[in-house]
């Protein structure tokens, strides 16, 4: 039987895991994802994910899990972002800051029984990203997390995902990938 993955389930799980301790909610957006700290218009922090996509919930949560307390007070965590259309140098910078978030996204995906796809996110760029090399770096980070243990917030979400989706404990064999994409 194939498990259905609905963004509303992630909203519920995220609220249960984090709202009380971090005053943060996962919100379905209509356009591009963004993180918005609490302000005069809203008394809680918001992780806004794109278009109701389940995969976007996992990716945006992974960025939140990486961000420290000070960064969680800044719009989009104060991180640099260069949109699609990057040259080779800018693409390399983009990939470097995406290794840890995509590693967590992959871990969350496995914990949820959901297919993970690496994203170089540069369809209109002047260079062709090396997806295999990038996936190797993300995979190495996944293995590091599995060997060293996850930080508290990602570990809390993994436990909730495994409980909700009835998936097995994480192990390295769950993170295989093809040599060609």
From TrEMBL:
GO MF annotations, alphabetized: translation elongation factor activity
InterPro entries: EpmC
Keywords, in A-Z order: Elongation factor, Protein biosynthesis
Any one Pfam family match given in the protein's UniProt record, by short name: EpmC
Keyword Protein biosynthesis: yes
Protein name (Swiss-Prot/TrEMBL): Elongation factor P hydroxylase
Organism: Rosenbergiella gaditana
Lineage: Bacteria, Pseudomonadati, Pseudomonadota, Gammaproteobacteria, Enterobacterales
């Amino acid at each position: 039987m194939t498990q259905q993955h609905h963004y509303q389930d992630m909203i519920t799980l995220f609220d249960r895991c984090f709202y009380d301790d971090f005053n943060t909610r996962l919100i379905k957006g209509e356009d591009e994802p963004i993180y918005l700290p609490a302000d005069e218009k809203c008394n809680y922090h918001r992780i806004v994910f794109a278009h109701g996509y389940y995969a976007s919930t996992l990716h945006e949560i992974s960025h939140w899990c990486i961000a420290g307390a000070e960064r969680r007070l800044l719009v989009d965590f104060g991180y640099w972002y260069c949109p699609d259309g990057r040259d080779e140098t800018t693409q390399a910078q983009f990939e470097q800051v995406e290794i840890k978030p995509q590693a967590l996204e992959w871990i969350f995906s496995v914990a949820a029984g959901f297919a993970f796809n690496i994203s170089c996110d540069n369809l209109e760029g002047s260079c062709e990203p090396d997806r295999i090399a990038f996936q190797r770096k993300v995979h190495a980070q996944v293995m590091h997390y599995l060997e060293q243990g996850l930080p508290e917030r990602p570990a809390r979400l993994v436990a909730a995902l495994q409980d909700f989706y009835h998936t097995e404990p994480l192990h390295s064999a769950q993170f295989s990938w093809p040599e060609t994409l």
